[in-house]
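Anyone else keep sequences and structure tokens together like this?

Example one:
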Amino acid sequence: MTNASWQPLRSRDAFGRLYHDGRRLDSRLIRCMFFFTDDTPSTVRAAFAVPGKEFISVQRHRIKRLMRESLRKEIPALHRSLAETRQSVSLILMFKGTKEMPRPSLQSVQESVASICLALRGNV
């Protein structure tokens, strides 16, 4: 699935570079690993991860949908910041929750993604 506002992060090299060279941000529900590049200005490449041992597939897919929707709302401001510096960003959003926590709501996920995107804009 492709989106006009962000591109999926898929290649093994990109994930390897992200885990090896990337920096980390944490919010209450989500951990973000990211790195900036100068190759294609104002491009956002994103991946989403939810732990398989903690949640069944229906729950994982729902949480990923919530994270994608939350990122979609934050992308315009992120694009503006990236365009000013002519950089692009690759990031992975990882859900930190466990089975014991209550079911995450859209609002709680949006707050976590918004805080991460605000910190990303500050790091550009």
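And example two:
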Amino acid sequence: MSARLTAGKRIRRTLDKALLTRNGKTAKWDETEQVVLDLIEAAADRAELLRSLFTAELAKPEISTRRVTEVAAEARQLEANIAKMVGSLDPKAQRQAQKSPQHAAAANSRWHPAGQQTPQMEVVRDGPVR
């Protein structure tokens, strides 16, 4: 008999499956991502508990609208936080690091000391180039 998976474990399993596979090897989450995954798992378990409290409150003969509103608001907030945390993960390794002009100038000064010709880079931000 298999134990029922919690909501957190189900999300964790789904995110682990989404992790990029390269050259037949499965990539691994880094330490920061592991912390985020743990937070996601805990939040999903709390959201599941809140959903059961919400259902129980609605099943009562005299429904407390205050209690229903509080539980619903807390559940919505948790769901929004879970979505934000999931969005911060990059299982397909598609995001590229952003280069700020200050970082580019610092790197150029290290690689091209004073007196040497430094190639000029044009930094393109979102929007039209002028």
